[in-house]
Recover the amino acids of this structure.
C-alpha cells in the first residue's frame, strides 16, 4: 500500500502520481510554480524547489531560472554549476581561473542577454523557427541561416554590439 500522493505499479513499486515529484523523505512534492504551504500540512515542493510566498520556486532565484524543456531550475550566466546540464541553454560550465568554483558562461558564438540567458551572436548559424534566438540586444535576425543585421544597408559593429547604418543608409 502506498501513501496518498503515490500510486502502486504492477511491479509493486510506489511512484509519485502525475504532476508530483519524489522528495528526499520518500514522499512526493509538487512542481515549479505550484501552490505550496510551509509547515506540516503541505502540499510540499519537490526537492529542487523551495516554497516562496505560497509557490514552489527555484532555490537560488538570483542565479537560477526555471527551464521548461529541462523541467528543472538551471543556472543563468555567471551562476554556479558542476556540469553543463546545470546551465541555461547554449551555455557551458567553466572553471573560474581566479577561484576553484565553476560558473556558467555562454558557448562560443553566443552572447548573454538581459536575463542571463544566451542568444546566438552575429555570424552564428541559426534556423528560423527552431527556437534558436539571435541576439535581440543587437537587433539581429535569422536570415538565410545566419544571425545578421536585418537590413543590407547596415553593418554589425562588434564594439557597440549593434547594427549601424552604412554610407547612404537612412539614419
Amino acid at each position: 500500500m502506498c501513501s496518498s500522493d503515490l500510486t502502486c505499479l504492477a511491479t509493486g513499486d510506489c511512484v509519485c502520481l502525475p504532476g508530483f515529484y519524489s522528495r528526499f523523505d520518500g514522499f512526493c512534492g509538487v512542481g515549479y510554480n505550484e501552490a505550496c504551504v510551509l509547515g506540516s500540512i503541505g502540499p510540499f515542493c519537490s526537492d529542487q524547489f523551495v516554497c516562496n510566498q505560497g509557490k514552489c520556486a527555484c532555490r537560488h532565484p538570483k542565479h537560477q531560472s526555471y527551464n521548461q524543456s529541462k523541467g528543472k531550475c538551471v543556472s543563468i550566466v555567471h551562476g554556479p554549476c558542476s556540469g553543463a546540464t546545470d546551465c541555461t541553454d547554449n551555455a557551458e560550465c567553466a572553471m573560474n581561473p581566479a577561484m576553484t568554483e565553476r560558473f556558467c558562461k555562454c558557448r562560443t558564438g553566443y552572447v548573454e542577454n538581459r536575463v542571463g540567458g544566451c542568444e546566438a551572436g552575429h555570424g552564428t548559424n541559426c534556423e528560423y523557427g527552431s527556437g534558436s534566438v539571435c541576439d535581440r540586444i543587437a537587433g539581429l535576425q535569422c536570415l538565410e541561416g545566419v544571425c545578421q543585421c536585418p537590413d543590407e544597408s547596415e553593418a554589425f559593429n562588434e564594439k557597440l554590439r549593434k547594427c549601424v547604418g552604412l554610407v547612404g543608409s537612412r539614419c
In short: DSSP finds no helices and 16 strands in the chain. The chain has a mean pLDDT of 89. The CA atoms of residues 54 and 139 lie 38 Å apart.
